[in-house]
Amino acid sequence: MAEQPFPEMALLAQVLAADNTEAPSLRSTRRGSQPPARGTEEGKAPPLLSRRNSILSRRSSFGMVPGSRRPSIGPWMFHRRVSFSGLPIFQPILKTRLQNTYRMGPDKGCKFNVEQVQQVLEGTLASALGTTEYSPQGSATLAQSLTELVQSRAKEVVPPRYKLVCHVVLGQQGQQSLLVASQGLWDPETDNFASATFSNASLFAVATVHGVYFE
């Protein structure tokens, strides 16, 4: 007696056979319903557009009318007034005007003190030079630095409204004779000068400070 298959098994076999026969037709139908993209091979998806390119195109076209020129960044963005040629018109710088004090001379007890300035000069030369040796190559730089140092130290003891003229002579010590002289046009009632000298085994220095009252 031959064995008969179960009804469920027979139904499952029929469903599987139907799926195998209909699958190729479905695939062919899907492929034929969508035409391939231009410039691409059949079966491959078209390349996606770059997001960076799309952003750049949006930025370049933002706020611009088709066919118009891109506005240039000129000086009009930084200045309020612009000339016809496109150049900015700068506002003139106003100088601060001070009122006249009507003072023709220094106050009482505020004149140029010769003795005090001379002490400052002697102490400055002694502390700055000391045992410094003379050098022909560095003498010019040393004299300039001494002049600036003497001027800054003298300003500390000189009364206000005085203009200072500082002069320093620096040379090699060789047992020679040297005379430093100066001449100027000033008011002997208010203007004066102070001088100091320094020397060691290698060099000598003469510093002079003229104090001229500024009206």
Write the layout of secondary structure elements.
Blueprint: H1 7-33, H2 51-61, H3 114-129, H4 139-155, E1 162-172, E2 192-199, E3 203-213
Antiparallel strand pairs: 1-3, 2-3
Organism: Chaetops frenatus (Rufous rock-jumper)
Protein name: TC1D4 protein
GO biological process, one term: microtubule-based movement
Describe the structure.
The structure is a single chain. The chain has 215 residues and is an alpha+beta fold. It has a domain at 114-213: Ribosomal protein S3 C-terminal domain (2-Layer Sandwich). Helix content is 33%, strand content 14%. The chain has a three-stranded antiparallel beta sheet with strand order 1-3-2, with helices on one face.
CATH class of the domain at 114-213: Alpha Beta
Largest sheet descriptor: 3 strands, antiparallel
What is the global morphology? flat
Number of helices: 4
Low-confidence stretches: 22-33, 53-63
Distance between the termini: 145 Å
- CATH homologous superfamily name of the domain at 114-213? Tctex-1
Main sheet: which strands, in order across? Answer: 1-3-2
Radius of gyration: 49 Å
Could you estimate the helical fraction of the residues in percent?
Answer: 25-40%
Could you say what the CATH topology of the domain at 114-213 is called? Ribosomal protein S3 C-terminal domain
CATH architecture classification of the domain at 114-213: 2-Layer Sandwich
